[in-house]
């Protein structure tokens, strides 16, 4: 039996929140805080369930957070095409950058052919420190890029 899909106030707020995070990603905790700030009473289980549904449907991409036990989510919509490139994830703030330039794509194709690998691009990432955090480390300020 097919489950009927319906639109809710919570779904509207989740969509609104995701639109503000297109450039840098977010955590389930940040989404929960946003919903609470906007008077939407929803428990964490429901938030995680919605994020999982959106990940399974392909509208979100989920990355293991390098700074906590959880995950960082990002919108898979628009021009991201996450299955076509790898990602860079900052070890300080958890932000995810799409590495979709021609040189990286050519290198990965060459690596795949030379070593006989089938790289799952949407699950692959390089880890390090992003420009924002690198600049912050020099200036000594704290906070999160997310």
Mean pLDDT: 78
Structural class per helix/strand content? alpha+beta
Helix percentage range: 40-55%
Give the strand order of the largest sheet, numbering strands 1, 2, ... along the chain: 4-3-5
Structure commentary:
Helix 2 (28-37) packs across helix 3 (44-57). The chain has five helices and five strands. With 146 residues, it is α+β, with helices and mostly antiparallel strands.
Notable characteristics:
single chain, 146 residues, alpha+beta, 5 strands, elongated
Topology:
Elements: H1 9-20, H2 28-37, H3 44-57, E1 60-64, E2 71-75, E3 86-90, E4 96-99, H4 102-115, E5 125-128, H5 131-139
Parallel strand pairs: 3-5
Antiparallel strand pairs: 1-2, 3-4
Helix pairs in contact: 2-3
Short description:
The chain is built from 5 helices and 5 strands, in the order H-H-H-E-E-E-E-H-E-H. By secondary structure, it is α+β, with helices and mostly antiparallel strands.
């Amino acid at each position: 039996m097919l489950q009927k899909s319906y639109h809710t106030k919570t779904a509207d707020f989740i969509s609104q929140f995701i639109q503000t995070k297109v450039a840098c990603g977010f955590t389930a905790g940040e989404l929960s805080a946003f919903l609470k700030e906007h008077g939407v009473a929803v428990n964490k289980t429901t938030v995680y369930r919605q994020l999982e549904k959106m990940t399974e449907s392909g509208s979100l991409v989920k990355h293991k957070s390098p700074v906590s036990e959880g995950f960082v989510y990002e919108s898979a919509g628009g021009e991201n095409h996450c299955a076509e490139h790898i990602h860079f994830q900052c070890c300080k703030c958890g932000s995810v950058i799409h590495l979709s330039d021609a040189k990286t794509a050519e290198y990965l194709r060459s690596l795949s052919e030379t070593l006989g690998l089938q790289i799952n691009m949407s699950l692959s990432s390089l880890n390090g420190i992003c420009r924002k955090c690198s600049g912050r480390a020099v200036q000594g300020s704290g906070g999160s890029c997310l």
